[in-house]
Structure formats: structure tokens, C-alpha cells
Amino acid sequence: MTDRACCAAGLHPTVGINHHNRYDPFCLADDLMEPFRYVVDKTARSLNPDNAAVPELSGELRRKILSGLLEKLPTSRGMWTLTDLLRLSAEQTARSFQRGEMCLVY
Fold first, then answer.
1. What was the pLDDT predicted at 79?
2. What distance lies between CA 93 and its chain's CA centroid?
3. In the chain, where the domains are located
């Protein structure tokens, strides 16, 4: 999802800002995703509050994970999906590089 947002904004997802790893093909995507990691953590914790081992990622569990990631998040500009926020972050990052000034607002 984040790598697609990078490409759509004209960025190359492998060229990271803070993440640097020659074995990771999505360093910039990792950088842009980092502020939203809590959404994934919150979803995972709600699905497995006891942190029990999950032997198989069932179709039902996958649906629950995706539904958690698709819920709208409150921002100062209204409710946005995680996908929309990642796209906006990628666009603002591209704009920051073009202008040479920080245009990224969370």
C-alpha cells in the first residue's frame, strides 16, 4: 500500500530517508509508514489481546486485519482512511523534495 503511494507520487520506494538497508527494497515506504504503525499495532492487539501464538493466518483473521486497516482515522481535516493518509504523506514528501522545504504535515 505504501510503496504504491510512493510510486504514484513520483517517488522511488527504495530510496529511504531514515531507513537504509540494502536488503529492503522499500526503505522510503517504511519511512512513510512509520508514523502510522500504531494503527497496525492497535489492530493486532485487538485481534490477539493475550499475544497467543497464531499457527495459521486464516481467511477470517485476514479479513479482520484488513477491516482494521480500512477504518477511518480522525485528523484535523476530518476522517481519513489509512490508505488516504499514506497517499497524502507520499504526495507531501514529493512536494517537500521539489520545493526544498518541509511540506509534510501529520
1. 94
2. 14
3. 2-99
